[in-house]
């Protein structure tokens, strides 16, 4: 039978003839807070207790979240979301009205005491004044609890859970949301989806260079793209009417041709491949030079990924699945040495283990990349342009070098794209197939040779 306000005992218990609020504490917090939090309401009427309980329930749940160490920067929003959910779950109109009354009571409590008076513009009658911040929180709470407003990050966690991107990209999503909320706070914009239209989005875009001084338009546009992806996801779920970020980008300065990142020259390759460094760095560079693979795909290789004359690289960038690449004949000795006596799940490069810190967003190749940069500079392979953060030559220059040499060896463009994992139309190189396409890829790989004096 549906509950009415004279029957609903959720969060309530009688104690000494009076009603009090009780909220159960999660088991992992029993040592800190006990099994239940309680607060008396000083009434023997269940109907009145049901009107008074909701603000108290919110306060007690806030204590639980604080004890757990959760962020409590906007507890009134967390309370409002709980009230909104309870309102949705109400079984009867009487129960719903009771919850709505609790919402208004909580909003009134948030508004606080009167701090002054001002005349009503229409009647001239004195009207009470409240603290502006308390008034803002009171209005925000009521709008969210009554289902009239949706916090911009309400669905963001679920959105992130469904993403199949690198941890680094997810970190960009989190930063983009953080910057958006920071801007809302600075500008007095209520951080709810309903507050965002095209004009609001443009305001945020225009404010980004000042909000994040020192970052290039390219980096700032990355955050705009991540917000656009989130709004696309919301649009598909009918949480917003349209993606307000569509087409919004800051103008990026044109890069002069002589300032673009480039392949290594053969002379630079000689310096790198003959310099004094560790054996694992030499092995890493040679694999990069003769596959065109990205550094993280190489560092993450396992023994099972280097069988039957082919590498199997994990998906990178926009690749949807792992990618096979023939093992160059000049790499066979390296692979034999690095796989000898090892199990399938052993790492090819145990010298660069995965980050130990749980939840780390760093790629496994982070240290390898830093060590290569230090080595590259030590042997004098560098090209720094004033005002640019990165050298025009970096580990990715091995990939550019491989593609350049394959093109110079008259290898078909579509086969080069297949080998290095660039987006292309038509067939893909199968993991197990030894058909014509794989043989074409093998010829492409073998056509690339290290500088003659390096063999």
Count of domain modules: 3
Biggest sheet: strand arrangement: 1-2-3
Rg (C-alpha, Å)? 31 Å
Mean pLDDT: 86
Class per helix and strand makeup? mainly alpha
Question: Which band does the percent of strand residues land in?
Answer: 5-15%
CATH fold annotation of the largest domain: hpI Integrase, Chain A
Element pattern in H and E: EEHEHHHEEHHHHHHHHEEHHHHH
N- and C-termini, Cα separation: 84 Å
In DSSP terms (H or I, runs of 4 or more residues), the helix count works out at 17
Q: Please bin the fraction of helical residues.
A: 40-55%
What does this structure look like?
By secondary structure, the chain is mainly α. It folds into 3 domains: 12-145, no CATH class; 156-236, no CATH class; 263-454, Orthogonal Bundle (hpI Integrase, Chain A). 47% of the residues lie in helices and 8% in strands. It has 17 helices and 7 strands. The chain has helices at 30-33, 46-68, 75-89, 93-111, 132-145, 156-161, 167-187, 198-211, 217-236, 266-274, 279-289, 295-299, 332-339, 366-378, 396-408, 413-420, 436-447, and strands at 12-15, 18-24, 36-40, 114-119, 126-130, 310-313, 323-326. The strands form 3 sheets. It has a 3-stranded antiparallel sheet. Strand 4 and strand 5 (126-130) form a beta hairpin. The longest helix has 23 residues, at 46-68. The protein is elongated. Mean pLDDT is 86; it is low at 1-5 and 430-435.
Task: Give keywords.
single chain; hpI Integrase, Chain A; elongated; 455 residues; DNA recombination; disordered N terminus; two-stranded antiparallel ribbon; DNA_brk_join_enz; mainly alpha
């Amino acid at each position: 039978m549906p509950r009415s306000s004279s029957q609903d005992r959720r969060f309530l218990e009688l104690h000494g003839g009076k009603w009090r609020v009780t909220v159960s504490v999660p088991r992992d917090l029993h040592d800190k807070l006990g099994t239940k939090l309680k607060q008396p309401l000083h009434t023997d009427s269940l109907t009145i207790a049901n009107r008074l309980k909701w603000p108290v329930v919110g306060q007690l749940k806030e204590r639980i979240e604080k004890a757990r160490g959760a962020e409590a920067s906007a507890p009134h929003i967390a309370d409002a979301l709980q009230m909104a959910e309870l309102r949705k779950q109400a079984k009867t109109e009487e129960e719903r009205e009771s919850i709505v009354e609790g919402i208004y009571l909580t909003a009134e409590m948030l508004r606080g005491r009167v701090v002054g008076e001002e005349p009503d513009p229409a009647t001239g009658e004195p009207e009470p004044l409240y603290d502006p911040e308390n008034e803002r929180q009171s209005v925000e709470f009521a709008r969210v609890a009554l289902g009239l407003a949706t916090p911009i990050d309400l669905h963001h966690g679920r959105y992130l859970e469904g993403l199949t991107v690198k941890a680094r990209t997810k970190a960009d999503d989190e930063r983009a949301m953080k910057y958006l909320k920071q801007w809302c706070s600075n500008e007095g914009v209520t951080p709810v989806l309903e507050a965002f239209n095209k004009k609001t989005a443009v305001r945020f875009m225009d404010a980004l260079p000042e909000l994040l001084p020192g970052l290039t338009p390219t980096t700032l546009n990355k955050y705009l793209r991540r917000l656009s992806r989130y709004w696309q996801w919301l649009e598909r779920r009918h949480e917003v009417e349209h993606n307000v970020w569509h087409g919004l980008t800051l103008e990026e300065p044109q890069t002069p041709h002589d300032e673009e990142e480039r392949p290594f020259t053969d002379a630079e390759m000689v310096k790198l491949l003959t310099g004094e460094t560790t054996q694992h760095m030499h092995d890493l560079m040679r694999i990069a030079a003769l596959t065109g693979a990205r550094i993280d795909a190489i560092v993450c290789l396992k023994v099972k990924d280097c069988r039957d004359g082919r590498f199997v690289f994990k998906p990178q960038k926009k690749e949807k699945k792992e990618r096979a690449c023939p093992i160059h004949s000049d790499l066979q000795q390296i692979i034999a040495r690095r796989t000898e006596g090892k199990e399938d799940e052993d790492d090819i490069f145990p010298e660069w283990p995965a980050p130990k810190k749980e939840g780390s967003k760093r790629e496994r190749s982070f240290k390898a990349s830093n060590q290569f940069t230090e080595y590259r500079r030590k042997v004098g392979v560098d090209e720094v342009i004033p005002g640019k953060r990165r050298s025009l030559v970096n580990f990715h220059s091995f990939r550019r070098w491989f593609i350049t040499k394959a093109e110079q060896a008259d290898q078909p463009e579509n086969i080069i794209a297949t080998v290095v994992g660039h987006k292309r139309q038509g067939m893909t190189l199968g993991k197990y197939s030894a058909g014509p396409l794989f043989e074409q890829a093998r010829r492409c790989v073998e056509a690339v040779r290290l500088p003659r004096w390096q063999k």
